[in-house]
Amino acid sequence: MKWIRKARELEPDHVDAALMEIEETSKNPYEQEMRLFELQQKAEKQLREQGYFRKASIGDFWGLIETRPYMRVCQTYVGTLLMNRKMRLAAKACESMLRLCKDDNLGIRYTLIHLYGYLEEEQAAHKLFGAYDGGWGTRFPLAMALLSYKQGKEEMAQKYLQMLLNNNKDTKKFFSAYGTKKLGEYASKMQPYAYRPNSIEELLLMLAEHDYVYDSAQAFSFGQRVRFVA
Q1: DSSP character for 60?
Q2: What's the pTM value of the predicted model, to 2 decimals?
Q3: C-alpha atoms less than 13 angstroms from C-alpha of 117 in its C-beta half-sphere
Q4: Which has the least CB within 10 A, 50, 70, 92, 221?
């Protein structure tokens, strides 16, 4: 906090320092959300005045060093909205981030596809799924399978699960361990700040990051466990 405050004294409009101060000093999730929203609006105003919200820059925000602090604020704001269970607001914030940064360097599309699954917004989910043709990996197929399951579309769910099986060699291992002590044992072996893509580690990370989706539809995962164990 000493250095954060020093930075803010030297540069009162330093967005990253202001973000760090909010994260360190907010007394509760509500206060954090309000302060982040205020900072987001202030940072956006600065960028607009500097000309970064012109058509030429929209879509390339993370590629521009000057816009990265603003995108970090947006990402933190999304996380706070999720924590406060403001799901539609979080989805709108994610959509805005993808409009500003088409390459999605922060991976916000993975949050958005899960939000669409939680909200059962099938059309929006299919549109997002199609926008990343061929780059689906683990997260998109599982999220789409869960969405199809929630809507009673079992054949479609199985189609996405087969896609997941093709992309992630540990799919059967994950579902076979779901609801047992083994899943916790697998999680305990993970490195704290890294994971192997398209492995059980990524599946475990999804379960933790998007608990609001998977905890609310545990029957889906237990159903796959029965299927794969059998």
Answers
A1: B
A2: 0.93
A3: 29
A4: 50
Tell the residue number behind the tokens 């309000």, with chain if given.
34
Q: Are 221 and 214 in contact (CB under 8 A)?
A: yes
Q: Which residue has the tokens 């009162």?
A: 12
The pLDDT tens digits of the residues spanning 178-189 come to 999 999 999 999
Average pLDDT, the chain: 94
Task: Classify the phi-psi angles of 186: left when phi > 0, otherwise alpha if psi is within -120 to 50, otherwise beta.
Answer: alpha
* CA within 13 Å, CB half, 64: 19
> Which amino acid does the sequence have at 200?
I
pLDDT band at 78; cut points 50, 70, 90 = very high
Q: Which residue has the higher pLDDT, 223 or 99?
A: 99
Q: Hey, how many other C-beta atoms are within 10 angstroms of the C-beta on 91?
A: 22
Those residues whose C-beta lies under 8 Å from the C-beta of residue 209, and which sit 6 or more positions away, are 111
Q: Residue type at 187? A: A
> What would the DSSP string read from start to end of 22-47?
HHHH-SSHHHHHHHHHHHHHHHHHHH
Give pLDDT tens digits for 173-220.
Answer: 999 999 999 999 999 999 988 999 999 999 999 999 999 999 988 899
Cβ–Cβ under 8 Å, residues 73 and 43: yes
With contact defined as beta carbons under 8 Å apart, do 151 and 123 qualify?
Answer: no
- Three-state SS for 51? coil
Q: Report the C-alpha gap between 187 and 177 in whole angstroms.
A: 11
Six-digit token string for 61: 């925000």
Please report the DSSP string for 7-25 in residue order. Answer: HHHH-TT-HHHHHHHHHHH
